[in-house]
């Protein structure tokens, strides 16, 4: 596509990058990213993807904006309290960049609808911005079964983690965490707390992964778990191998249809690297 004079100016800092250029910016404008969860992770991811000129952004969330969300969910403002998060997010993105088409899905993802949502616009990349294990396992399984790349992210207290899955090219979320933990085994963010900026740090990394994937540049976090500890200001990049016995992406998968788990906990699990 030919960029307009306004687009050449708006995205000029992208265009002068040799790894992006006008051709790469056109790829971004023609791309589609689905963000499941418009909260601590999804909010900054959506805003930076909109600023980057991602042509279509899908927002999935059934929740309404709560006052306690505003400490970290920067896509929402005080005046948005009580408003559906997808509507608030859509309004913010529309004000940021008219090049971006926002598609909203005000619903909880489940085994009954997630594949339809992913296929609705044939999204190129999915970002997991959810805050509970059932949704994370569901998103992982759906993306593996649908052969869609996605970025997992999780935050709690002063810690965060993220990994990128590429179809057929690396470990999935279940290769690290085989099954959801027992109910109430891990505290929720409302119980344990979370530093507000954690969503920005991990969420913008997830947005970066989406942009890199679309442009076909750099090295993705495929096969690596990136963890971050804000108190120590320490990043760790841990090599993760594909598990041959993985129930969904292994050599003999046992999961061939989607499952719904009854559990609602925040999603960061400690990683023991021996």
How would you describe this protein?
The protein is of the alpha/beta class and 274 residues long. The protein has one domain: 3-Layer(aba) Sandwich (Rossmann fold), CATH 3.40.50. Helix content is 33%, strand content 16%. It contains ten helices and eight strands. It has an eight-stranded mixed sheet, sandwiched between helices. α4 (42-52) packs across α10. The protein is globular. The protein starts with a helix and ends in a 35-residue tail after the last strand. 45% of the residues are buried.
Give the SSE map.
Blueprint: H1 5-10, H2 12-15, H3 21-29, E1 32-36, H4 42-52, E2 56-60, H5 85-96, E3 101-105, H6 114-120, E4 125-128, H7 133-146, E5 150-156, E6 159-165, H8 173-176, H9 189-192, H10 197-215, E7 224-229, E8 234-239
Parallel strand pairs: 1-2, 1-4, 2-3, 4-5
Antiparallel strand pairs: 5-6, 6-7, 7-8
Helix pairs in contact: 4-5, 4-10
């Amino acid at each position: 596509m030919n960029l307009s004079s306004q687009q050449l100016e708006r995205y000029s800092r992208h265009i002068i990058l040799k790894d992006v250029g006008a051709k790469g910016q056109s790829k971004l404008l023609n791309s589609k990213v689905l963000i499941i969860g418009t909260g601590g992770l999804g909010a900054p991811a959506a805003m930076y993807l909109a600023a980057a000129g991602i042509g279509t952004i899908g927002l999935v969330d059934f929740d309404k904006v709560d006052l306690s969300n505003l400490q970290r969910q920067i896509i929402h403002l005080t005046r948005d309290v009580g408003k559906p998060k997808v509507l608030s997010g859509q309004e913010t993105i529309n004000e940021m960049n008219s090049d971006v088409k926002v598609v909203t899905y005000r619903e909880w993802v489940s085994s009954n609808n997630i594949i339809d949502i992913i296929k609705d616009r044939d999204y190129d990349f999915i970002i997991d911005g959810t805050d509970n294990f059932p949704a994370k396992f569901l998103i992982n399984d759906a993306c593996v079964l649908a052969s869609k790349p996605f970025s997992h992210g999780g935050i709690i207290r002063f810690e965060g983690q993220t990994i990128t899955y590429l179809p057929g090219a690396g470990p999935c979320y279940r290769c690290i965490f085989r099954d959801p933990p027992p109910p109430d085994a891990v505290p929720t963010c409302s119980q344990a707390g979370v530093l507000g900026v954690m969503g920005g740090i991990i969420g913008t990394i997830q947005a970066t992964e989406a942009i890199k994937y679309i442009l076909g540049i750099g090295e993705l976090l495929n096969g690596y778990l990136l963890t971050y500890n804000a108190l120590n200001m320490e990043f760790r990049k841990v090599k993760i191998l594909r598990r041959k016995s993985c129930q969904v992406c292994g050599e003999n998968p046992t999961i061939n249809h989607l499952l719904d788990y009854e559990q609602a906990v925040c999603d960061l699990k400690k990683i023991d690297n021996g």
